Structure formats: C-alpha cells, structure tokens
C-alpha cells in the first residue's frame, strides 16, 4: 500500500468514528437528557408560579381585610387620630438625658 492510500483510509476511519460518536451523543442528549432537564425546569416554573400566586393572594387578602399594610398606610397618611400616632412616639420623659 502506498502512504497516500493509507492516509486516506486512516482519515476515513477517523471521520467515521467521529460521526458515530457524535450521532450517539446527539441521540442520548435529544431523547434522554433534554426531556429530563425540560421536565425539571417546567416543575420549577410551576412551583414558582404557585408560590407567587399564593403570596399575591395573601397580600390582596391582607389589603381587603385590613391587614397590617393597610393600617400602616392609613397611619402614614393620617387617617388614624393623632392620639394613636402619639402613643407610638416616645414621651420626653422616656428619652435619655442629654
């Protein structure tokens, strides 16, 4: 055999081996790994959406039923009387001497 013929046979064998390896890797990723990864991502998205929905539901429920956020907002804009605001403030007698 000539050296040039041997070179082409070796190159052909290397290319065929690479093609088989890439085909096997593609099939494993396409039919095994990708669906599992996609399912995990889908599960995490569903769980995140459910958690977000629950947090939003709780906040709206707190707003509607007069939760802490509504009272803080009302206190901030002065809807509660000045007496209640004064109860939260420290008296001059309670302050440490300067």
Notes on the structure:
The protein is mainly alpha-helical and 98 residues long. The protein is built from three helices and no strands. The longest helix is centred in the middle third of the chain and has 62 residues, at 3-64. It is rod-shaped, with a radius of gyration of 35 Å. The protein starts with a helix and ends in a 10-residue tail after the last helix. 0% of the residues are buried.
Quick recap of the structure?
The protein is mainly α. The protein is built from 3 helices and no strands.
* Uncertain segments: none
How many helical stretches?
Answer: 3
Output the radius of gyration.
35 Å
End-to-end separation in angstroms reads 105 Å
Coarse shape:
rod-shaped
Helix and strand succession? HHH
Largest sheet: none
Counted beta strands: 0
User: In what range is the share of β-strand residues?
Assistant: under 5%
Overall mean pLDDT: 82
Structural class: mainly alpha
Which oligomerization state do the chains in this entry correspond to? Answer: single chain
Helix content: over 70%
């Amino acid at each position: 055999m000539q050296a040039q013929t041997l070179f082409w046979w070796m190159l052909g064998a290397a290319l065929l081996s690479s093609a088989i390896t890439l085909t096997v890797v593609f099939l494993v990723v396409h039919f095994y790994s990708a669906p599992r990864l996609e399912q995990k991502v889908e599960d995490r998205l569903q769980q995140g959406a459910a958690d977000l929905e629950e947090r939003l539901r709780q906040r709206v429920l707190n707003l509607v039923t007069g939760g802490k956020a509504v009272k803080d907002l009302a206190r901030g804009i002065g809807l509660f009387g000045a007496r209640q605001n004064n109860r939260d403030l420290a008296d001059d007698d309670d302050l440490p001497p300067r």
